[in-house]
């Protein structure tokens, strides 16, 4: 018994010894394959990512500068390109071409390998879109969304995912920057349908602009006023709605115009007809249905008709050799200037707030009117005479001559008129109180939409998904839809409204004018 028991104990010890060795071996294998080896693989993966980070930062610095204007890569790129010191094309091209992973050993970490695959695809899209971005004939120069900002944001997101897969922290934004504040975007639509066209020229008066366009084949009338929702209404062919009372209007038909009340679709009920031989055109409709006026013409004949609830009394037609006019889209204030058959210029002002008092005056100068716009207190007129261009400010009872034969009238804001010259070095003039002074917005290199604020001129320019607002000091930058194309700038002195095209249609990008 004792011997058998001792033999059994020895066998038990041997078995336990082998079990201990086996457990140690299994533990060692587990440690190596489950703890040590993964740590080594992750460390190797992290080292490769950190090495790639050098290329990423070099490319960022080349495109965005050492002090990017936004923590978002696409926004920082646009800000850099909107500055007077853009990136150097050749060097940046080389760095962009080096963003792929290149030859590398498999880390044997599935999540890391998949993240590298996604990053390589994103790097390829950056390279392709960069080519079109710097090519003058590529996508960046066409009126559609620039692919490079989107590709850069995708690459940055892929890089962040790669770092997360390898247990690295998030990408630290250079400097202490944040994404740009977004401009308020107001879609310009009629019954939820996008606007397809807006007729030129784009000439502002006071805080807004009266314009016409189309949507799905339907003609529309736009009344833009800075800081307010745009007023958009359907009109028939050759028709205008009255301002400020849009419930009535007038339309041109062969050898006459018709006046009547309008429904929401622009249909005219029980119109009255005012005959005038020739292809007629409605120029302005102002006032209310109870007391309004219609200005229309055909050929070289101009007529002003006073209307009372649709009963219109036309004045005797005036023979004209040239004409221009401007209307305040909010109030209906309208000033017309024309040249008679003796080359004398006349002006007529219609003010709905003053019972449409007729104020017809001879200007006392010869010439042919070309363009005009309204400020808060005056009308600015540009006209020609014997190949010379002149600009005058018209106020009740006075004319102030501000001749400038090189700068063309662009438009007006409440605080003054804007003139522009693009022969040689681009330059602007801010005109008020009969005086025009140089006032080119800072960092502006070519013609862009401009408005007059109490602090001076404000110009707007867009690149990628960024809108630059040029003021007297540093530019303000706002995030906007990618590919935004500014058409015109309007201001009431506090709010700046930029009418612009986007891939989704016409919008107003609203920012501060201060």
Quick description:
The chain has 514 residues and is an alpha+beta fold. The chain has helices spanning 2-64, 73-81, 89-96, 110-134, 147-165, and strands at residues 184-187, 189-190, 193-194, 197-198, 208-215, 218-225, 231-235, 239-241, 243-244, 248-262, 268-287, 292-298, 301-308, 311-314, 318-319, 322-327, 334-339, 344-350, 359-366, 368-374, 379-385, 388-395, 398-401, 408-413, 416-421, 427-432, 435-438, 450-453, 456-463, 466-470, 476-479, 485-491, 495-502, 505-512. It is 24% helix and 41% strand.
**Uncertain runs:** 23-37, 138-142
Assign the structural class, choosing from mainly alpha, mainly beta, alpha/beta, alpha+beta, or little secondary structure.
alpha+beta
Profile the largest sheet.
Answer: 8 strands, mixed
* Total count of domains: 2
Structure in words:
The longest helix has 63 residues. The N and C termini lie far apart (106 Å). The protein has 5 helices and 34 strands. The protein is of the alpha+beta class and 514 residues long. The chain folds into 2 domains: 164 residues, no CATH class; 259 residues, Methylamine Dehydrogenase, Chain H (7 Propeller), CATH 2.130.10.
List the helices and strands and how they pair.
Blueprint (H helix, E strand, L loop, with lengths): L1 H63 L8 H9 L7 H8 L13 H25 L12 H19 L18 E4 L1 E2 L2 E2 L2 E2 L9 E8 L2 E8 L5 E5 L3 E3 L1 E2 L3 E15 L5 E20 L4 E7 L2 E8 L2 E4 L3 E2 L2 E6 L6 E6 L4 E7 L8 E8 L1 E7 L4 E7 L2 E8 L2 E4 L6 E6 L2 E6 L5 E6 L2 E4 L11 E4 L2 E8 L2 E5 L5 E4 L5 E7 L3 E8 L2 E8 L2
Helix pairs in contact: 1-3, 2-5, 4-5
């Amino acid at each position: 018994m004792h011997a058998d028991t001792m033999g059994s104990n020895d066998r038990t010890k041997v078995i336990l010894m082998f079990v201990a060795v086996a457990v140690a071996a299994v533990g060692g294998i587990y440690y190596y394959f489950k703890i040590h080896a993964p740590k080594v693989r992750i460390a190797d993966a992290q080292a490769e990512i950190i090495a790639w980070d050098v290329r990423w930062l070099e490319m960022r610095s080349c495109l965005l500068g050492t002090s990017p204007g936004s923590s978002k890569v696409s926004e920082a790129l646009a800000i850099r390109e909107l500055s007077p010191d853009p990136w150097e094309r050749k060097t940046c091209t080389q760095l962009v071409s080096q963003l792929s992973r290149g030859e590398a050993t498999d880390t044997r970490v599935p999540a890391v390998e998949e993240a590298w695959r996604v990053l390589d695809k994103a790097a390829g899209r950056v390279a392709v879109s960069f080519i079109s971005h710097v090519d003058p004939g590529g996508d960046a120069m066409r009126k559609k969304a620039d692919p490079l900002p989107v590709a850069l944001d995708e690459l940055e997101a892929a890089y962040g995912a790669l770092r997360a897969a390898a247990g690295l922290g998030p990408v630290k934004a250079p400097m202490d920057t944040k994404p740009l504040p977004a401009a308020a975007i107001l879609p310009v639509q009629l019954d939820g349908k996008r606007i397809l066209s807006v007729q030129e020229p784009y000439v502002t008066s006071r805080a807004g602009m009266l314009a016409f366009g189309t949507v799905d084949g339907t003609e529309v009338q736009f009344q833009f006023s800075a800081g307010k929702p745009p007023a958009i209404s359907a009109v028939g062919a050759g028709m205008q709605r009255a301002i400020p009372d849009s419930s009535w209007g007038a339309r041109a038909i062969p050898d006459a115009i018709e006046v009547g009340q309008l429904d929401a679709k622009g249909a005219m009920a029980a119109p009255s007809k005012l005959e005038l031989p020739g292809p007629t055109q409605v120029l302005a409709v102002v006032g209310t249905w109870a007391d309004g006026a219609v200005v229309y013409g055909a050929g070289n004949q101009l007529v002003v008709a006073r209307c009372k609830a649709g009963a219109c009394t036309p004045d005797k037609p005036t023979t004209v050799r040239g004409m221009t006019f401007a209307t305040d889209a909010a109030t209906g204030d309208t000033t017309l200037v024309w040249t008679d058959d003796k080359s004398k210029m006349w002006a007529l002002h219609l003010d709905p707030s003053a019972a449409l008092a007729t104020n017809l005056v001879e200007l006392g100068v010869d010439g042919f009117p070309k363009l005009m716009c309204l400020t808060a207190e005056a009308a600015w007129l540009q006209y020609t005479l014997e190949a010379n261009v002149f600009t005058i400010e018209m106020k009740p009872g006075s004319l102030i001559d501000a001749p400038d034969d090189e700068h063309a009238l662009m438009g007006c804001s409440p605080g003054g008129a804007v003139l522009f010259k693009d022969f040689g070095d681009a330059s602007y003039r801010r005109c008020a109180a009969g005086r025009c002074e140089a006032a080119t917005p800072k960092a502006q290199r070519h013609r862009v939409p401009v408005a007059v604020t109490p602090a001076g001129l404000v110009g707007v320019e867009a690149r990628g998904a960024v809108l630059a607002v040029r003021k007297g000091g540093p530019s303000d930058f706002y995030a906007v839809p990618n590919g935004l194309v500014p058409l015109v700038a309007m201001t009431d002195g506090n709010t700046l409204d930029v009418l612009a095209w986007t891939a989704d249609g016409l919008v107003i990008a609203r920012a501060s004018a201060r």
